[in-house]
Specification:
Layout (H helix, E strand, L loop, with lengths): L5 H14 L12 E6 L2 E5 L3 H23 L4 E5 L15 H7 L31 H12 L8 E5 L5 H13 L7 E5 H14 L2 H9 L3 E5 L8 H16 L3 E6 L11 H8 L2 E5 L4 H14 L6 H10 L4 H18 L5 H9 L11 H12 L3 H4 L6 H17 L4 H7 L5 H17 L1 H15 L20
Helix pairs in contact: 1-2, 4-5, 6-7, 10-11, 10-12, 11-13, 12-13, 14-16, 14-19, 16-18, 17-18, 18-19
The structure holds adenosine-5'-diphosphate and magnesium ion.
The site of magnesium ion (MG) has 3 residues, from helix 5.
């Protein structure tokens, strides 16, 4: 396996900072590039939480960066601390994800179906202010001694005020224990979906086992229980089973228990039986600290004037405060200017900065597959029938115009063809584009779609970065 050059990795990280500022985190510096094997770039991290987060939330962005920097059609896979040897096969699910999915029920750590936890939602990254002090202290207490202090812990507050952050901080603190307790962190919607699936499939005992055989159950956004009678009934039994066995329950909601519409009285009283704490919107001083902290986890330092300006301008909730930090970052990347008050003003007063996204082969394939209704395997096959050969030529044309891949690489990707075939395809499409106005417009729409994948000229069932793994 080829050991990656440190310089290449450095360039990948700097490409990410410039093209995907929203994704970038300072701890990406700690990722260890392992090497390329069979078209898959392997990188290692020291925590399962990070591995899972990267694989689930950042794989597409890393794939894009790796392709742009190496000029090769590689995909990416993240290895965790449990993947001591390299996976025997480079096909299929990532080794770490696999190990997680097959973990026995009694093992601590993640469970299948759990939400992805952000490695940044730690207690250390949570700014304490008068608005959240109690909720923070209670969350720390239950992660130190689960089921001994407040049970259940019920955290409520408006959108973007830190409920999910606190629940995940509890998870992270618990997961850091050795051995970690069995925790299950799901959204209320996930609880409902799993419940409905279990009812339909006649698998209620598996469902109960999954939710009741844990040390700590955390359910985010329980206000979704409103008016769901059957789910409420099941939830009530889940709650009792855990409570009676001294297991910790943590719930979050946008309203206090007695204000959740049509919540059964017995659930209201159960939810109120532990500690109910509220998160209030942050005051100016807290907002300043949060802005600085959000900049820091993205590897930036904001001066006092910049932080104060943002904190004064964005007052509604913390998610928007974070959005403002990202906009300043994007403006900084787009203009290449230092982060000062003038730049922050520009970013927040003239709308979001536009960082031109790099076109990827995955964007092209998505657009073409959707428009022509062909399959990726057809595009990569040797088949010559017109209904396949034409979209394949369109792919080659778009790849040639919008990516930096060579004729050889493009030909190789689309069915192992040589560079003259790609040149011929580009010419054929150009000729038709100039002669046929309708086709010209289709091509324009596809080019728009490829440049701004979210614009939706043709709807897409989702990016498929792992398709690259077939190269
Ligand atoms: P909610 O679940 O209440 O809608 P989140 O927990 O998703 O809100 O928080 C929204 C954003 O605000 C997240 O990025 C989170 O990290 C951040 N945030 C909220 N409260 C704080 C805090 N006290 N310190 C730092 N960041 C915070
Ligand atoms: Mg939330």
């Amino acid at each position: 396996m080829a050991k990656p050059d440190r310089v290449v990795w450095h360039d990948v990280l700097s490409y990410l900072r410039n093209h995907h500022p929203d994704t970038c985190r300072q701890w990406f510096e700690e990722i260890d590039p392992v090497g390329i094997e069979g078209g898959v770039f392997l990188a290692r991290v020291d925590q399962s939480v990070r591995q899972r987060y990267l694989q689930r939330q950042c794989a597409a962005q890393f794939t894009d960066a790796l392709q742009a920097i190496t000029g090769r059609l590689v995909s990416v896979r993240f290895l965790g601390p449990d993947d001591d040897a390299l996976p025997a096969s480079t096909n299929g699910t990532p080794a770490g994800a696999n190990a997680t999915a097959q973990a026995p029920h009694h093992a601590g750590g993640y469970r299948p179906g759990a939400l992805v936890i952000s490695p940044d939602y730690t207690f250390e990254n949570f700014i304490i202010g008068p608005e959240n002090r109690l909720a923070h202290a209670a969350s720390v207490a239950i992660s130190t001694t689960p089921a001994r202090t407040y049970n259940p812990l019920f955290v409520h507050g408006g959108v973007g005020l830190g409920k999910t952050h606190l629940l995940q901080a509890v998870c992270l603190r618990l997961l850091a224990r050795t051995p970690p307790p069995v925790i299950y962190y799901v959204s209320c919607e996930e609880f409902m979906t799993q419940f409905m699936d279990a009812v339909q499939a006649g698998q209620m005992s598996e469902f109960r086992h999954r939710f009741r055989d844990v040390d700590v159950l955390l359910i985010d956004d329980v206000h979704f229980l409103a008016k769901r009678e059957r789910t409420q009934e099941e939830f009530f039994h889940t709650f009792n089973a855990l409570y009676q066995n001294d297991k910790q329950i943590v719930l979050s909601s946008d309203a206090p228990p007695n204000e959740i519409p049509a919540l059964e009285e017995r659930l209201v009283s159960r939810f109120q039986s532990g500690l109910v704490v509220q998160l209030q919107p942050p005051c100016y001083d807290t907002r300043i600290q949060i802005v600085k902290q959000k900049a820091k986890i993205r590897g930036m330092e904001f001066g006092d004037d910049v932080a104060a300006y943002i904190a004064a301008k964005v007052t509604s909730n913390i998610r928007e405060l974070e959005g403002a930090v990202v906009r300043v970052h994007m403006q900084h990347v787009a203009d290449g200017l230092p982060i000062d008050l003038a730049l922050a003003r520009l970013a927040l007063e003239t709308g979001p900065a536009t960082v031109k996204p790099e076109v990827t082969i995955a964007n092209i394939i998505d657009a073409v597959i959707n428009y022509y209704g062909v399959k990726l395997t057809d595009l990569q096959s040797k088949r010559r029938q017109k209904s396949i050969a034409h979209p394949r030529q369109v792919c080659m044309y778009l790849a040639r115009r919008h990516t930096r891949f060579s004729l050889e690489e493009i030909g190789g990707y689309f069915g192992g063809r040589d560079h003259t075939t790609v040149m011929h395809a580009v010419k054929t499409i150009e000729k038709r584009r100039d002669a046929d106005g309708d086709f010209g417009r289709v091509l324009e729409a596809l080019e728009d779609r490829v440049r701004t994948p979210a614009s939706g000229v043709v709807t897409t069932p989702g990016a498929r970065p792992m398709a690259m793994a077939t190269v």
